[in-house]
Every structure is written in structure tokens, then in C-alpha cells.
Write a structure and sequence with these properties.
Layout lengths: L1 E4 L5 H15 L4 E6 L2 H10 L4 H4 L4 E3 L7 E3 L5 E6 L3 H9 L5 E5 L7 H11 L7 E6 L5 H7 L6 E4 L9 H11 L1
Parallel strand pairs: 1-7, 1-8, 2-5, 2-6, 6-7
Antiparallel strand pairs: 3-4, 4-5
Helix pairs in contact: 4-5
Length: 179
């Protein structure tokens, strides 16, 4: 599932809600959160106002755990937290193989997207329905367009107008400036 949208469309929160629910409903799930940088993953997907900790206060974020940073659910589900800004970081996806679910935050902004996607795909092979979700602002890069146009991709698009939680004054300013 690929959720595209601009700033304020609610894409990170939508994926965080899906991810948290999936992890709760499938005990023992092994997942990954993959972002352009480790900081992006932590700030947007875990600690931010739309992050996992705001969706599910029962989870624990372990910034330093065996195998790397992890988010742990009470039912034994876990997610590795990874950033892939450099080729050497893509290799970390190899060590985190055998996963059920990947969440790609700001997929289109990932500088190592082609290699990271290929490496992650090799390890996304556990469970009954291994799959990826992505929350991203679209960009016209070749790597992103290749994934976006894949035959098994289900794409959803949102705008700031679709997000009922946006501050009305901010929404009006954005419409005035950019519409």
C-alpha cells in the first residue's frame, strides 16, 4: 500500500495507525520501519505527534537493543528502526531479514531507494502475507516511479483537505498560498 500526499495530508498518521493495529493483532510479528535517515524514522514514526507512541502507549522504543533500535509490543511483536542514507546502511536491511511487514516513511525521499527496496524485498518473506506500506510525498525520481508503478502496488492519494485534524487557520493559509 502506497499512501501519497503532501504536508498535512495525514499520511504518516494513517500508516502509523495501520502499523500499530497490525502489530497488535498479529502477535510475534517481525517488522521494519525504514526511513531516509534514522532520525526521520524516530521523529516521524515513533516520537512525533503522528507516531506510534501517540497511537499505542503500550509500546516501548529501545534506541539501543541487540540488532539495533527496536519498537516492542507487549504481545512479542517487534519492529527494527532503520535509516538508509548511505550504501553501508542498506546492508543493515540484510541483517534485519525474515520480516512480515515493512513501513517505508517518506519513501520517495530515500536516496538509496533502489538498493534499499531490493535488499528489503529479499527479507520480506515471513508470515502468511508479507507486505510493505509506505507514506510519502511523491517525487519524480526514477527509483520511486518504478516502485510506484509496480503491478502489485495499491496507491492512495490524500491532500491537506482530506485531513479533518488540520488546524482550520493553517489550512486556510496553505490554500491561500499554494492553491
Amino acid at each position: 500500500w502506497l499512501l501519497e500526499g503532501g504536508r498535512g495530508s495525514g499520511k504518516t498518521e494513517a500508516c502509523a495507525r495501520y502499523f500499530a493495529a497490525y502489530m497488535r493483532e498479529h502477535p510475534g510479528t517481525r517488522a521494519r520501519i525504514i526511513a531516509p535517515t534514522f532520525g526521520d524514522a524516530v521523529e516521524s514514526c515513533i516520537n512525533g505527534p503522528s507516531g506510534l507512541q501517540s497511537m499505542d502507549p503500550t509500546i516501548r522504543f529501545l534506541p539501543s537493543a541487540p540488532g539495533g533500535a527496536k519498537v516492542i509490543w507487549p504481545n512479542g511483536s517487534e519492529a527494527l528502526v532503520l535509516g538508509t542514507p548511505f550504501p553501508k546502511d542498506v546492508d543493515r536491511l540484510r541483517a534485519g531479514g525474515n520480516r512480515d511487514l515493512d513501513w517505508w516513511e517518506e519513501m520517495a525521499a530515500n536516496a538509496q531507494l533502489t538498493d534499499a527496496w531490493d535488499q528489503a524485498s529479499l527479507g520480506l518473506r515471513r508470515g502468511k502475507r508479507p507486505h510493505s506500506i509506505a507514506s510519502t510525498t511523491p517525487r519524480p525520481t526514477t527509483a520511486y516511479k518504478t516502485i510506484r508503478n509496480g503491478p502489485r502496488v495499491i496507491r492512495t492519494h490524500g491532500t491537506l483537505l482530506d485531513n479533518p485534524h488540520n488546524n482550520p487557520e493553517w489550512r486556510a493559509m496553505m490554500i491561500e498560498r499554494y492553491e
